[in-house]
Write a structure and sequence with these properties.
Elements lengths: L19 H28 L10 E6 L14 E3 L4 E6 H4 L1 E6 L11 E2 L4 E3 L6 E2 L5 E3 L8 E7 L2 E10 L20
Antiparallel strand pairs: 1-10, 2-3, 3-4, 4-9, 5-6, 6-7, 7-8, 9-10
Amino acid sequence: MAAVSTHAPTPGYSSEPVSRRNALRIMLGGAIGLASLEFLVTSVNFLWPVLKGGLGSVVNVGALSDFPAVTPQKGEPFHALKIKSWVVNLQDFDQTIQALYHTCPHLGCTVPYCNQSGRFECPCHGSTYNLHGEWVEGPAPRGMDRFKASVQDGNVMVDTTNLITGPPHGTHTIDDTPRGPRCT
């Protein structure tokens, strides 16, 4: 007598092979689901506020001695990417410390410092700013925006909770004579 199988089929499982069409549907659904999940995670990561040590807080960017002194004719400011700003130590020149937001107020390009001219020069449309971030020339509507910077216990503290609008055209508190030719 032949043995009778008492094995019951598993619910939801078919012993029949999956058709090519159903396999493609499953793969397409998985790919769309994975892409949607990646988009959601990237969007949340981009929009989530920086809670510590970045924009929106008071940041200790380092000891004052870490930032070389700058004058209109020598030295170079420090680009602090953590706060998206140029830290300009003018303590030896006019007893100030500046934290200039590195974005051009014209159209938002990142403004590099040109050691050759001793000025900030926007590569997009040619706006130029002196060491105080004051407008010198170009299409920008004002000088570079800034954050309040101070020296406390020998450390440079930058308050990134409030972006201060740059000075209007015609403001000149520092010698505007360039060191040399433009970089851009």
